[in-house]
Write a structure and sequence with these properties.
This protein has 198 residues and is α+β, with helices and mostly antiparallel strands. 37% of the residues lie in helices and 29% in strands. It is flat. The chain starts with 15 loop residues before the first strand and ends in a 6-residue tail after the last helix.
Amino acid sequence: MNRKGDKKPPWGSVKMIPVNVIGISVCPPYQGYVVILQETNGNRRLPIFIGVAEAQAISILLQGMEYARPLTFDLFGSIFDELGIKVTEICVTKLKENTFYATVELADSNGDVHYIDARPSDSIALALKTKAKIFVAEKVMENASILPDQLPAEGFDQLEELKNKLQTAVAEENYEEAARIRDKIREMEKKLGVDNKS
């Protein structure tokens, strides 16, 4: 959705909760990844299931790592910079049939505001890249948030960090280090119950 010149957000007067991205977690029962958002002034955490590629991108951004080639969020960040467009905030606006929906708010060089529908995972990566604020609708937080002790303690961001290190070692042709890291990844995946078919 693109609303040029419309200053009112498409979600209306819904209360929005500011959140921070605190990491990527592995969820063994589902053998998948979640990005975890925590409200800035509280303890509620919102886990959102995301794909492997998105988990890797967000993990790279959280760790401040450099990547050999630009990823999708780098591309959009560069395009926006070139066109004088600023990502002002992203909002996780609703949860419907176990699917989260998000909106990216953009401001162009003329001062017009635009609202773009997007997946939460892409939106979060873009927000991290551009230092934009992240919000979650109060109703979404009420219905889907959990407390910190309900999150899996093991594997919190560690598996993705190891995978990033493995890619770096391979890129640098340090195959002995890559083999060592690969073995650690397999050991952790087995411990977490993640099925590794590679």
